[in-house]
Amino acid sequence: MATSSVVPDDQSVYRGLRNANWSKNGRITWKAFILRPATVEFPIEEELSLGLNKASAVDELKEHFGWAALSVKAVHSLEHGLVIRVNPSSDQKADLFGLPLHSTDPDQIDLARTMATDLAIISEYLSPD
Amino acid sequence: MTPFTNLGTNSVSTLDWLEVSKNLKISELVHSNCSIAEPVFTQVATSTTQTTPAGMEIPVPTTGGFFSDLHKASGSKTATKGASKATNVDLIVDEVHRVVADAGKTPETTPQPTNEAVSNVVSVVSTVKDSLLQGADVDTLHGEINLTWNDSAKQVMLICRTNQEPLVHHHQHIKGKASKHGIEKATAKRLAHWLGWLHE
């Protein structure tokens, strides 16, 4: 299977905030960037879903609480080896690869919380329209 | 109705959760000026309960906080005279009750944290100097309970899960450089250390 293209550094991507606690006092929290464990309903989340625009970031959500806007360059500049690729099934969506999977290993938890916090710090909160 | 019922799906009862505190001297837990000799847990009677989304009933502390309830139940004159200002640990435990009762409604808050996760929070924070605990953001995520403290470029997080020792994560953002971070087993002493570091 061909690898989808990397989103260029001069673009922005958007994380739809599907939980109210993904932002607080006008700032994005680390919770917006944590991968989900496997559940009865869903398989383990392996990449983080993003939109290449605000509309596509929330088009599958019943409700949302705004967006986290991220500069692709800023994400790629973090020293975590994160990569944002265009979603192979939609040219309006993207996926963030490289986040640690949900784990009970403290080292993996450390990395996951650190990356999520770093992503939150470089995010800009956009309130719902 | 029995005063305590199971909080979650875990087999540990709320009474077992209280046993964690029972092994500790409560006067050393939260109120340094409190003259309680021994808390009488059998007399604790929470006046209200709350039904969780899973249909289970959990005790809800009355005004003044969970620890204040314990003080009242133990017959403490200090506590009954003036259920003065709620301490930070009271506020945290109350908030833990609230977020756990509210869990299970979204994929992020599912599964509901168990009694074990709750007791882990209580056992770690209850002996930390109260002023250090101020400003905790209490939340649940995928069955765990998280307490997060932020101060400018630093962050400290207490992570309490089921079947896992509590962890404390610390993070420092340094502009233009890789962030400093680490994780370790959470004890009251280590959490106090990192909360002290947060406010340096």
Largest sheet of chain A: 3 strands, antiparallel
**Nearest-angstrom radius of gyration of chain A?**
14 Å
Q: Rg of chain B, please? A: 17 Å
Estimate the helix proportion of chain B, in percent. Answer: 25-40%
Number of strands of chain A: 8
- Overall body shape of chain B: globular
Question: In order across it, which strands form the biggest sheet of chain A?
Answer: 1-5-8
From the helix content, strand content and strand pairing of chain A, which structural class follows? alpha+beta
Output the helix-strand order of chain B: HHEEHHHHEEEEEH
Shape of chain A: globular
First-to-last CA distance of chain B: 48 Å
Topology:
The complex is a heterodimer of chains A (129) and B (200).
Chain A: E1 12-16, E2 23-24, E3 27-28, E4 48-51, H1 54-58, E5 67-71, H2 72-77, E6 83-86, E7 93-97, H3 106-122, E8 124-126
Antiparallel strand pairs in A: 1-5, 2-3, 4-7, 5-8, 6-7
Chain B: H1 14-22, H2 26-29, E1 48-51, E2 57-60, H3 66-73, H4 77-81, H5 88-102, H6 115-125, E3 137-141, E4 144-151, E5 154-160, E6 167-172, E7 180-185, H7 188-198
Antiparallel strand pairs in B: 1-2, 3-4, 4-5, 5-6, 6-7
Helix pairs in contact in B: 1-6, 5-6
Please characterize this protein's 3D structure:
The complex is a heterodimer of chains A (129) and B (200). Chain A contains 3 helices and 8 strands, in the order ββββαβαββαβ. Chain A has helices at 54-58, 72-77, 106-122, and strands at residues 12-16, 23-24, 27-28, 48-51, 67-71, 83-86, 93-97, 124-126. In chain A, the strands form 3 sheets. Chain A has a 3-stranded antiparallel sheet. With 200 residues, chain B is of the alpha+beta class. Helix content of chain B is 32%, strand content 20%. Chain B has helices at 14-22, 26-29, 66-73, 77-81, 88-102, 115-125, 188-198, and strands at 48-51, 57-60, 137-141, 144-151, 154-160, 167-172, 180-185. In chain B, strands 3-4-5-6-7 form a 5-stranded antiparallel sheet. In chain B, strands 1-2 form a two-stranded antiparallel ribbon. The radius of gyration of chain B is 17 Å and the shape is globular. The N and C termini of chain B lie far apart (48 Å).
